């Protein structure tokens, strides 16, 4: 018997690479459910004695589950004879004495969850509704050597536990393989589905993007930078001019995060030179890379986050004769900027200036990570009605990783910088206008 999976190419990493956590997220009709169902049937057919659990948060009746999808899939793959459905007990008998069970995690507690300990695979479908409690219950239970946890979901809110775990929390990075799939990745979607999509396309844009493009549902009112602004900036192409200032921003790793980001922005163009990301680099290594970039690009200004270990980077660069400016995120917002509201501290001011820049034509690379970074932080107002951007440490507490890339870009707005070419012009003009009176 040869089973040949016929699945869209986006899902290939989930089939060919190994990881404890496997995830597929995206909008409607992207074949997420079919792909996972197929993979599960395939694994059972190839590995006699395999045990798996098909989970969801709430399963009032078996109809809520993927029971029927699995039956249909086995039949479609012409291995229906290997599986014996036992709907009365919510399970399917599988090859070699294996079993596939169907459960709602909501019904699980510390005792009955133990029945899953010997299981090889847990597949959580519609995982956007997974609660933190259920996830915490499941993770240590699936503990057999080589066991896997699969999740498929249509993103709902940025803070949904599965989304945080598999797309944001960097602790899980080495353990996970996650793919994003949308309708265009599924050549097998039918004509009816396409009709539905076109109907929605003609309607409300945010709703369409949520349902079909896998964007989060209505964005939070407390989000400082909205998704629309970010997408517009990603779609733009830079149009550089000679007078554009070149500025380097350096966000140095902190709060146990190990990513340092160096970003070069030239006027409205933050796209042509994508950010440099250094993982696990120490102060000396970061300083060396910053100095190398200064030598290479000859920027008009260099701003380095000097909080935490960043101070060491600033010191080292200065010691080596490079002129760099240290920026303290918690420091005072030191100037009034047109179009920028009152800000609580330097970081809020830089983010507000960056938001204004995005509105006025800034160009950024098209990347999901950057989109998450820019739209991640929430904001509020302090007692003086000044804008406050959510602290990195608070984001960490929510399980959201700190927006290092966006912070590096924000640092390029720490202080106004004038391009060298313009500065030379101004100097020349000042000299020619200088008429000393005797
Ligand atoms: N391997 C396949 N062979 C044939 N058709 C397929 C295959 N995979 C997916 N399809 C078609 O694509 C449709 C959408 O797939 P699926 O239901 O898995 O999408 P989904 O991403 O889970 O969407 P939703 O968000 O609506 O749950 C299916 O109804 C089916 O018609
Ligand atoms: Mg589905």
UniProtKB/TrEMBL annotation:
Residues 20-214 form the Phage terminase large subunit N-terminal domain. Transmembrane segments: none annotated. It holds the Pfam family Terminase_3. It comes from the Bacteria. Signal peptide: none annotated. InterPro entries: P-loop_NTPase, Terminase_L_N, Viral_DNA_packaging_terminase. PANTHER family: PBSX PHAGE TERMINASE LARGE SUBUNIT (PTHR39184:SF1), PTHR39184. This is Phage terminase large subunit. The lineage of its organism: Bacteria, Pseudomonadati, Pseudomonadota, Alphaproteobacteria, Rhodobacterales.
């Amino acid at each position: 018997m040869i089973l040949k999976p016929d699945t869209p190419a986006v899902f290939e990493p989930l089939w060919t690479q190994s990881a404890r956590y496997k995830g597929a997220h995206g909008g409607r009709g992207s074949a997420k459910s079919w792909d996972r169902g197929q993979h599960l049937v395939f694994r059972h057919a190839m590995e006699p004695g395999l045990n798996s659990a098909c989970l969801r948060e709430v399963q009032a009746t078996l109809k809520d589950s993927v029971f029927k999808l699995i039956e249909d899939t086995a039949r479609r793959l012409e291995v229906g004879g290997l599986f014996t459905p036992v709907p009365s007990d919510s399970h399917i008998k599988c090859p070699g004495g294996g079993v596939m069970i169907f459960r709602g995690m909501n019904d699980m507690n510390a005792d009955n969850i133990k029945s899953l300990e010997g299981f090889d695979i847990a597949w959580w479908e519609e995982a956007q509704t997974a609660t933190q409690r259920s996830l915490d219950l499941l993770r240590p239970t699936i503990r057999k050597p080589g066991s896997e946890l699969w999740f498929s979901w249509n993103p709902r809110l940025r803070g949904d536990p599965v989304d945080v775990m598999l797309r944001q929390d960097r602790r899980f990075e080495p353990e996970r393989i996650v793919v994003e799939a949308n309708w265009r990745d599924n050549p097998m979607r039918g004509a009816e589905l396409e009709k539905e999509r076109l109907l929605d396309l003609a309607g409300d844009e945010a709703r369409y993007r949520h349902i079909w493009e896998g964007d989060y549902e209505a964005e939070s009112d407390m989000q400082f930078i909205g998704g629309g602004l970010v997408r517009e900036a990603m779609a733009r192409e830079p149009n550089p001019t000679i007078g554009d200032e070149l500025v380097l921003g350096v966000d140095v790793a902190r709060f146990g995060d190990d990513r340092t980001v160096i970003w070069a922005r030239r006027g409205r163009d933050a796209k042509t030179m994508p950010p440099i990301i250094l993982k696990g680099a120490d102060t000396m290594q970061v300083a060396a890379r910053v100095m190398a970039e200064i030598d290479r690009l000859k920027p008009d200004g260099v701003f380095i986050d000097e909080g935490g270990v960043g101070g060491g980077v600033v010191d080292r660069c200065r010691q080596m004769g490079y002129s760099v400016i240290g920026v303290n995120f918690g420091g005072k917002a030191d100037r009034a900027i047109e179009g920028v509201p009152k800000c609580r501290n330097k970081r809020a001011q830089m983010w507000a200036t960056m938001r204004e820049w995005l509105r006025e034509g800034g160009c950024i690379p098209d990347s999901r990570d950057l989109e998450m970074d820019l739209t991640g932080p929430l904001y509020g107002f302090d007692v003086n009605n000044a804008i406050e951007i959510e602290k990195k440490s608070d984001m960490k507490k929510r399980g959201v990783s700190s927006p290092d890339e966006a912070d590096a870009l924000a640092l390029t707005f720490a202080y106004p910088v004038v391009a060298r070419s313009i500065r030379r012009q101004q100097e020349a003009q000042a000299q020619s206008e200088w008429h000393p009176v005797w």
